[in-house]
Design a protein that fits this description.
Belongs to the NAD-dependent glycerol-3-phosphate dehydrogenase family. Its EC number is 1.1.1.94. Keywords: Acyltransferase, Cytoplasm, Lipid biosynthesis, Lipid metabolism, NAD, NADP, Nucleotide-binding, Oxidoreductase, Phospholipid biosynthesis, Phospholipid metabolism, Transferase. It holds the Pfam family NAD_Gly3P_dh_C. It is found in: Cytoplasm. It contains 16 helices and 8 strands. By secondary structure, the chain is α/β, with parallel strands linked by helices. It folds into 2 domains: 174 residues, NAD(P)-binding Rossmann-like Domain (Rossmann fold); 143 residues, N-(1-d-carboxylethyl)-l-norvaline Dehydrogenase, domain 2, CATH 1.10.1040. An 8-stranded mixed sheet has the order 3-2-1-4-5-6-7-8, sandwiched between helices. Helix 9 packs antiparallel against helix 10 and helix 9 packs across helix 15.
Length: 341
């Protein structure tokens, strides 16, 4: 009789709302350790089965989830790494991980952002810092608090190797959290980064009092912009009509829990980006991604009016009113092949 296989040990790096939610999901499936920077957060998870700072007091985490502040302990026991740190801290954590992680351990990113300076997707940073480690992303329309509260939701796990993706997907799957698979890592990563920029656009519209029809128009044209850039970069067009694209765009643009929509609304109320970020306890990746997206648009020669206007407000002193006026002067053309808004 063949010996029973040991359950893989999942290590989640990061103590924010989504990292904690995913860690709790994994802990219901098998042994899971979460690395957090704060001893207070570690104690809250271990003793109270809560992450009160990011998920509130009502969300009860799996009692099998254990947290640690010891990075070496986390790195050395990992069979699967889940990266729940923001894009600006991703490289630093990976660099520390590189000295302690066993070879070939898969790395799954939860980050919907791009690295400023290099313009890298997170899987590209993994390839650079941890060559030989399979790199992918778990993404979809996932407001952390709702998933943590047990509402039905779904995500897609993108890995280059579909056999590996199918095996890993089971670690992230519950009766109420459906995990699909794809090999389109580039498409899923770009969809995740792009939708945050468009959520800022819709948030700005909420502040201006635009109608439901206008919001729907902006979101639909956002999918078109996302698809064009994503395909130019090597992604699959169908990905942008799926969970990581349109699905995530819808929830990020419409949910009052959306950080990026919140940024847009606050911009529409006259606050500066610096004021908005200072008042938030979590990262809104769309703020950092806006300038990177426009660099990609220039590189590939793609007209992206909505992203352009968001970048103008976030980084170049334009007003929310000017942004929407800028969109409306764009001449409509062919819905699929046209270049404008």
């Amino acid at each position: 009789m063949a010996p029973a296989q040991r359950e893989p040990k999942v290590v989640v790096l990061g103590g924010g709302s989504w990292g904690t939610t995913v860690a709790s999901i994994c802990a219901r499936r098998g042994p899971t350790l979460q690395w957090v920077r704060s001893q207070e957060t570690a104690d809250d998870i271990n003793t109270n089965h809560r992450n009160s700072k990011y998920l509130g007091d009502e969300v009860e985490l799996a009692d099998t989830l254990r947290a640690t502040t010891d990075f070496t302990e986390a790195a050395e026991c990992a069979d699967v790494i889940v990266m729940g740190v923001p894009s600006h801290g991703f490289r630093g954590v990976l660099t520390e991980l590189a000295t302690q992680l066993r070879p070939w351990v898969p790395v799954v990113s939860l980050v919907k952002g791009l690295e400023q300076g290099t313009n890298y997707r997170m899987s590209q940073i993994v390839d650079e810092i941890l060559p030989g480690h399979p790199a992918g992303i778990l993404a979809g329309p996932n407001i952390a608090r709702e998933v943590a509260d047990g509402y039905a939701a779904a995500a897609v796990l993108a890995m280059p190797d579909q056999h590996l993706a199918a095996n890993l997907a089971g670690l992230f799957r519950t009766k109420r959290f459906r995990t699909y698979t794809t090999d389109d890592v580039c498409g899923v990563e770009m969809a995740g980064a792009l939708k945050n920029v468009y959520a800022i656009a819709v948030g700005m519209g909420f502040a201006l009092g635009i109608g439901e029809n206008t919001r729907a128009m902006v979101m639909a044209r956002a999918v078109a912009e996302m698809s064009k850039l994503g395909v130019a970069m090597g992604g699959n067009r169908d990905t942008f009509a799926g969970l990581a694209g349109m699905g995530d765009l819808i929830v990020t643009c419409t949910s009052q829990r959306s950080r990026n929509r919140h940024v847009g609304e606050q911009l529409g109320k006259g606050k500066t980006v610096e004021e908005i970020i200072a008042a938030m306890n979590q990262v809104a990746e769309g703020v950092k991604a806006a300038s990177v997206i426009m660099e990609f648009a220039d590189k590939y020669g793609i007209s992206m009016p909505i992203a352009r206007e968001v970048d103008g407000v976030v980084n170049h002193g334009s007003s929310v009113e000017q942004a929407y006026r800028g969109l409306m002067v764009e001449k409509p053309g062919h819905e699929v092949h046209g270049s404008g808004f």
